[in-house]
Specification:
This protein is α/β, with parallel strands linked by helices and about 325 residues long. The chain has helices at about 5-15, 30-35, 40-45, 45-60, 75, 115-130, 145-150, 155-160, 170-190, 205-210, 215-225, 245, 260-270, 285, 290-305, 320-330, and strands at about 65, 80-85, 90, 135-140, 195, 230-235, 255, 275-280, 310. It has a single domain (about 5-330), classed as TIM Barrel (Alpha-Beta Barrel). Helix 7 (about 145-150) crosses helix 9.
Length: about 325
């Protein structure tokens, strides 16, 4: 088969058509910072480092996309005080929404005027300029529940959801409107796919996800589709119990973490509009030898369907040896 570009490869695979290689959709963040020669803090704060590292990683490790995932840019844009450690993930301190549930503190930001969101938009623009002809560019926004957790705190939000706190009826629509603005700005700048990160959804169970999560995930997916882009929904953790609800979201790609039965999930999604992506334990990339990694990759391939994509279940740690990352990509090529 003629060698395909990553963009051609992903489009064909999502359509269930033959490909020269199953797309390699590994998520890199700290590895991108490392390959750009900067600290994680610099990677997060300056889109030029992010773009540089993306381009290096795509070429070196055979990734079939480039993207702007790093952290919740929205958290700072809403007005939170965000701490940026040198080599760790940013975090808000203090939390913006306290026990009084006062939403008046939240800034209704313009993604093109706020420094943190504009930096991501510029990242999409530069990736599109430098690699968009050959690579799909993946933008990134937070899902409504994930963003609520960033502003309120995970434990606090879990209690609020369980107790049906009234303020949630005002908060989630507000977050959704900002979601739309940020997604559109990135798509206008050149993003082909919008990543929607909603990891906290794996913690709430079917009842609460059904009440507070699936409606907003489906609404943002429909909105993004209306703009002509695809959706990659990322809910790491064990989503087995909420998978029937997630299927109704109709995202184009669904990341499946390592603790989910990948074969069962792929078969459940077969024939729907959603392709399963996963689901090697990211820690395995650091700990296992070549023989074991080959077994894990082949297990995912054999358990999948005609649209299945392959990646770690979540971000691959920076300590993963190069030989494992390179071996994985080689195993994805059709023999």
């Amino acid at each position: 088969m003629i060698r395909m570009t990553p963009k051609e490869r992903l489009e064909a695979r999502l359509a269930g058509k033959p490909v020269d290689k199953i797309p390699n959709m590994n998520i890199f963040m700290s590895i991108i910072a490392r390959e750009a020669g900067v600290s994680y803090r610099e990677y997060v704060l300056d889109y030029r480092h992010l773009v540089k590292g993306n381009l290096v990683c795509a070429e070196k490790y055979g990734l079939d996309s480039v993207g702007v995932i790093s952290e919740s840019r929205e958290t700072a844009a809403y007005g939170s005080c965000v701490i940026y450690p040198e080599d760790a993930s940013p975090y808000a301190d203090p939390l913006l929404i306290g026990d009084d549930h006062d939403l008046s503190k939240l800034i209704r930001f313009d993604p093109l005027e706020n420094e943190r969101t504009l930096d991501r938009v510029k990242g999409c623009e530069l990736l599109h300029e430098k690699a968009g002809a050959d690579y799909p560019v993946i933008g990134w926004i937070e899902g409504c529940l994930a963003q609520a957790a960033e502003l309120r705190g995970v434990s606090e939000l879990m209690m609020d959801l369980a107790e049906d706190e009234p303020y949630l009826e005002d908060l989630l629509p507000l977050l959704h409107e900002q979601q739309k603005r940020f997604a559109k700005a990135q798509i206008d700048a050149g993003a082909d796919i919008m990543g929607v990160g909603n990891a906290v959804s794996s913690l709430v169970g079917p009842r609460l996800y059904g009440q507070y999560g699936v409606f907003w995930d489906k609404a943002i997916t429909e909105y993004i589709h209306g703009l002509g882009a695809k959706v990659k929904l990322h809910i790491c953790g064990n989503i087995t119990a909420i998978l029937p609800l997630i299927k109704d979201v109709q995202a184009d790609i669904l990341d499946i973490d390592w603790m989910v039965d990948f074969g069962a999930a792929a078969k459940f999604l077969e024939g729907s509009k959603t392709a399963a992506n996963g689901n090697i334990n990211p820690v395995s990339f650091m700990q296992c030898g070549p023989g074991e990694l080959e077994r894990l990759v082949k297990r995912c391939i054999e358990a999948g369907t005609a649209t299945t994509l392959i990646s770690g279940g979540c971000e691959i740690p920076s300590a993963a040896p190069d030989e494992n990352l390179l071996l994985m990509d080689r195993l994805l090529y059709r023999q």
